[in-house]
User: What shape does this take?
Amino acid sequence: MKRLLQWLDDRTGYRAWLGRGLLAPLPGGPRWHYTLGRVLVFLFLVQILTGFFLWMAYSPSETTAWESTYYLTYRMEGGQLLRGLHRLAASAMIVLLLLHLLQVVVSGAYRPPREITYWTGLLMLALVFKLGLTGYWLPADQKAYWSTQVVTSVVSLLPGIGPQVKQLVLGGARYNHHTLTHLAAIHMGLLPGALALLLWIHLAQRRRHGPLLRVGESAEPRGTYWPDQVWRNALVALVVLGALIVGVLYYFPPELTAPAQPARGFAAARPAWFFLFLFRFRQAFESWGPRGELLGALVIPGLAMLWMFLFPLLGRRRLGHAFNVVVLLVFLGTAGYFTALALYEDKHDRQFQNAKWLAHRETQTALALARQGIPPQGARWMMNHTPQGRAFYLLAGSCLKCHSYSDAQGRGFVLAEPSAPNLWRFASEEWVAGLLDPQKIGSPHYFGNTPLKEGEMASYVRDDMPEAEDDQGNKLFTPEAIQAVAAALAAEAGYPGLDPQRVQRGRKLLADDSNGCAQCHKFHDAGDLGSAPDLTGYGSREWLVGMISNPGGERFYGHLDAQQQVMPAFLAGEEGASAEAVPREVIQALVDLLLADRRRASP
Assistant: This one.
């Protein structure tokens, strides 16, 4: 081995090269705060390595981008960890770069003769942000598509060159196959190459000028880079890598929303967290029109970046240096404030939370379909043409225009003014018990915003049911009896884990055609159709399919007049069918979607 290494050194001189690097003396000795810059280099190498393997599985086109991202996330061995590391390391790089920038400015390491070191670092920060942005767009999911539309619409506002820049990014007049190939080339080739070049210049300048020592500190070398500083760098890098792996496995798994749908809206789109501040800052200028958007999204941030480039010129004197530190703290504080403001407003914005819930359910549908196999036409076609995909869009585009879908804590989809009952755990024991409660039946959760608010059922529950008596003069609908009726109907719907004795008692009340529910409703062999919905199989799959198909049928609400019957038929071919009418298999898939939630603790 010695002879081989000597042969290699004779021909390459690697020992001298290593000696200049690893055995270089350290003026002032090793420091823990030196590790921050080295960890950033380590994270860049992690990005290069993970990105290379992701590149091997990714295919940038309209029918393969989402599909290949799904494959490498959920099918490829180790793919989820690989993509998660790439994604989380990018966020870590941005955080550490901002900390490094703060460290450099506060310590004065940007002042002459280190201007080029500082400027290359600032350019690398900008490139890392652009890498994060272009990588965010590559999966071609709903978030990627709609955030691309926002950013390119702002770019198009640039005077003179805006439309041309937008067309260059999109590869045409709109988002298409060429958009993904352009973004892939920029993200995987152009930006990493430029970043590597800047990093080489940055490190060469750093070596040329050496570390910045404190005033009065001796520049006498104390130790060498190997091993005195290297073990510190390696230890911190391993800690960061371990934290990233734990983060991916337990806290921040890689995200993939449903495939992009240009023809459908997506109100849950937000930029990546590191661009949230710019997103919210731009909104502050929206009332000023297109010029305001240009000002908030490009002009002011561009001027701030230019000001930071002037720091070395402004900070030659002590007062200028102090001013630079204050300006940087203001910039970072402003960005942090607008990021926090965007997160706070989204958390308390009901419309956004509804859109986020819909996006989550759309993603669940897409992933469930993808597990069955993505057709050659692609995932977008799969969502628009399979019964399950069409069922979700029927739920989102029709059902949730009138119905809420939320639990008692307000989790789920909440309409401000629902015009139909809440669908969450419909026909469950607690849902039916609320329907039979005189204080609740008139609430928005049930009939409060519907024509049935003053109908016979609501009047009976409020006025007659509390006074109803059996043949012996005993109260018929005691609280225990109401719970029994609720349990019996929940049993008809197929909910598990019900008390058999309570269910049996409730069925007797439902079948009582003299004082009980069968006076108006049909329940198995008791009662007749025509004056109230059939309670046989109430809330079951078959009942729900029939109800959604034609709610005006004799079995359901055929007894209501035209003003009271506001829910249209959704089965194609039915009389009075809505414009959204669909085949029976789509309605069956919609019912299956609703029934699947019966096992959930919250929507």
Remarks:
- The chain has three domains: 2-212+219-259, 270-347, 360-426+539-603.
- The chain has 23 helices and six strands.
- Strands lie at 25-27, 221-224, 405-406, 412-413, 569-571, 577-582.
